[in-house]
Amino acid sequence: MDKKQTQNLYVELFSPCPDWDEQERRLKIVERQSEISVQKVLQAAIRFVPPFDQGDTAWVEEPEDIKLTIAGFRHALDNIAQQDHPIIWAMLQHNLGSALTFGGANEAAISAFESTLKIYNSDNYPELRANTLSNIADVFVSEGRNLEALNAFDEAVSLGGGYADEIDRGRLEVGRGLAYLDLLDDDMPNQLSSARRSFQIAAEIFSNAEYWDDWAYVQVYLGHCYAEDQVGDFAENVEMAIGHYQNALSLFPKRLSPEEWAMAQLGLGAALSERIFGDPVKNGQDAITALQAARRVFRPSTFPEDHAKTVITLACVYLQKPEPEPEKALVNLKRILPLIDPHENRQTWIDLHINLANAYRARRKGHRRKNMLKAMEVLREALTVCGDRSVDNFGSIHVNLGAVCIELHRDFDEPLLDYAEEVNKTALSVISREAFPDYWTRTKANQASVYMAKNDWPSVSEIAEEVLNLSDDALRHGKSIYERTRLIKAIAVLNDLGTLALNQQGKTRIAFAFACRSRSRFLRAADIVEHGLKKFQDARTLGANEAYIQFTMPMVDELSLAFIVTREGISAIQLELFGRANHQNLLKSWGEAYRKYADVGITETPQFQAGLEDVLSLLSRTLAPIIDGLRENGKTKLVVAPSGLLSLFPLHAVTHPGDDMRRLLDEFEIIYTTDLATYLSRQEEQQRGNPSLFLVSDPEQCLYGTESERNFLTQLFPNHQTLVGEQADQKTVIDTLRDGTGFDLIHFSCHGEYGWNYFDDGGIRLANGGKLSFRNVLENVKLHPGAIVVLASCESGITDYEHMPNETFGLQLAFLHAGAKAVISTLWPVDDRATSFLMGRFYEGLTKDLPPSEALRVSQLWLKRATNLELYGEGMQVPISSQVRISNQDGELSKITNADKNNRPFAHPVYWAGFTVYGA
After folding, report:
1. Residue 705's closest CA among 880, 898, 895, 858?
2. pLDDT tens digits along 20-55
3. How many degrees, rounded to 5, is the angle at CA 834 between CA 833 and CA 835?
4. Beta bridge partners of 656
5. Given CB 3.0 to 4.6 Å as the disulfide criterion, which of 200, 615, 650, 682 pairs with 913?
6. Who contacts 72 (Cβ-Cβ below 8 Å, separation ≥6)?
7. What was the pLDDT predicted at 798?
């Protein structure tokens, strides 16, 4: 047998084989045919079986087996010279490296693999080289030498993987993906996307049902990739992470080990706790269920680090619930405190203390001052082991510490302002606006609060101006509405503080300009209102009879302001009756009445009617100084930019002090807007002749009177396109409005609902379970600049009053962003019959060339004053015009007696005041 034949035999001998019997058969063939002594090789090889597709390496169950295997390969290498038998020598080195790896001798294993690579070159032995590169890369990963691991993985992939089929290539991609994940803390760009790409390739390879165990494993790591992604659309990343974790769990118990299953449950729980979509109460409960499942596997005795991570995440969920449960968070966190060594598990220890501080801050049990002092103590403890000056550790601890100091000073007069100022400055030394805009803005807000407490109003306004200037550009380049939403939330406090600070310094006009700039951030980011901003430079653009009123509601202070702008000038009035205490009481009483109303519907509304009248009475007393002054100055048209909680209420229904029958609507034309610039930018937009109508009618086929309403509108506007019932699904509606430049009127006669838990959960309900949400409109709809949008559906005009007080954050904003001139929407679930009457009069006004605000006012005044006789008349028909009538379909109305003919069934504002017009 020649040398080449002998080498081929050894290649066969040491290549992967499926079982022990096959290995022994090969050894016997080699022993019979080879002229080279193989006794020493046999001693090692008979003990060594390389890892196979079937999974675990059974040959390493006993430590003595590993030792004997390593000794055997080394003995064989002592008897085979590299220069005489290079391929045999290289294979022995390769297998020695594998044995050393399982024996825990990583440095020696790396040396053996590197020796192998000296023989296996890419030209003659590409598969063998790729195989060895894959093995050495795995060792590099375990040693934390991630860049070297990636270089080895990349070369292995370039050589074809070194495997007989695609399945092994998939496992190579998994290894490469894990190496990229381990690099997340290093200064290497795009490592997360690279990891995700490798896992996606592997998932595609393993999609065959035969390899679903590998597929399930990869799904867990794909979930990790999306959960860690801070670059893309946050909400979409969370949804993708949830989907991948659920994919993995769907195959349990056959396809995941208990540890992998628990890791998927931990990831799922964390993702659900950050979920944007859906009911937050259900998301929170589902997160708790997943995390408790993970904790049952991650016991403190066997998986102490994973157990701690699970408990910390569970505590976060308890603190983030709509009704937080800090006591449960504290119990869980205190339980693991003795288990964590701050030196061995520094990051977990820091995370634990940050969450402990948050739990003490949220705690309602015990004395609040003691809880806040305990929070400060815990954060200081976290700093003792912080070490580096990273944002996640050093920066976030200082941000939280600064906030605690401010609260202690504000609520308990603790002398901590100087310390808070120092802490905030330290936080800003590591937090950059570019990398962490929300963290940076929060810290700036904390610093401004310190200066406000010191009555240093110039410093407050300086910080607010800095943030506002820098955030404009960030908003323009926001990657998604959620990224922009988070930033807007972060700057909301500073907007108010800056406005208050400038007004406190007597700079009323500058304060108002600042307040204007802080509103309608979405519109400004889209360059919608630039023309209006230029027009605002000259206040004479307002009509002689017009007054603009803009409110600034309290977020961190008791001060509420109303700016009044007329041709004559700008003034600011402090609203004494609308501080934070009244703000909260009003919200509570309104919320209770609203919930009752939503439960029983329009037919039983005494509690809601009483709640509405209470609100209007408070607003009457609050706004009386403003209204009296405008009345005396001959103003008859009010352009109102509500803020915060005020956006929930119909200011046009406020009563006149001393006369409960007179409403502002009786003497003023009232139009709502997001800000003055938006209003002015819409002034020049005119509706075209022969207006075209796009009508979406009763997608769920359950609304009263829609057929007669539809007949009325289509007769009134012959140039129309109509979607009825199942035709009005989400895709068809959005596709029609994607370039809706041909429509002058867009009318939705549908059910609707506001997303009380998260604004984008609500919207206009369409056919087949679809909806038209804020996000759908913002990202897809484009309208003719003079278009009028009518959202004749429940709760279509409610905005995010809590988190976005300086934004009209609802469907009105979305349609204005899409180009509409005016948007008519509703503040609560409206009565179907009253809506039909109101809409008939409204559209009749439009056909008479009344502007939308005046047409709505005329219809509301008519409806609240109309008697049964005037409404139904002879033959039970609603006289709308000489050409068009809406016929009544409810036979019960024919039973009206003579005594009831002069009753005014819709006099109460609950029937007509819910409609508002935003725009111009």
Report:
1. 880
2. 455 455 555 555 554 444 444 444 444 443 433 333
3. 90
4. 659
5. 650
6. 40, 43, 44, 45, 47, 48
7. 87
Closest to 919 measured CA to CA, from 685, 688, 678: 678
First to last CA, the chain: 97
- Please tell me whether the peptide bond between 691 and the residue prior to it is cis, using omega within 30 degrees of 0: no
Helices 396-412 and 437-453 cross at an angle (nearest 10°) of: 30
Tokens representing 400 are 């939280």
Return the sign of the alpha-carbon dihedral for residues 672, 677, 678, 680. Answer: positive
Largest CA distance in the chain: 123
Q: Hey, how many other C-beta atoms are within 10 angstroms of the C-beta on 600?
A: 13
What pTM value is reported for the model?
A: 0.73
Q: Which residues, in sequence order, are CB contacts of 38 under 8 Å at separation 6+?
A: 27, 30, 31
Residue 57's nearest CA partner among 20, 94, 26 is 20
Q: How far is CA 121 from CA 90, 93, 109, 360, 362, in A?
A: 11, 15, 19, 62, 63
More confident residue, 743 or 597: 743
How buried is residue 769: exposed, middle or buried, by Cβ count under 10 Å (0-12/13-18/19+)? exposed
Q: Which two structure tokens, joined as six digits, stand for 550?
A: 């803009």
pLDDT value, residue 405: 93
Our CA angle for 538, 540, 541, nearest 5°, is: 80
Strand residues in 453-568 grouped as ranges (E): 546-552, 561-566
Identify the band that residue 678 occupies on the pLDDT scale cut at 50, 70 and 90.
confident
**561-566 vs 569-574, strand pairing mode:** antiparallel
More confident site: 525 or 529: 525
List, in sequence order, every beta strand (DSSP E) within 558-705.
561-566, 569-574, 637-641, 655-656, 659-663, 669-672, 693-697
Tell me which residue of 887, 468, 500, 916 sits closest to 715, measured CA to CA. 887
- Between CA 792 and CA 814 the distance in angstroms is 16
Residue 546, strand partner residues: 637
Using 50, 70 and 90 to split pLDDT, how confident is the model at 131?
Answer: confident
The band of 462, judged by pLDDT with boundaries at 50, 70 and 90, is: very high
Residues 6+ apart with CB under 8 A from 208: none
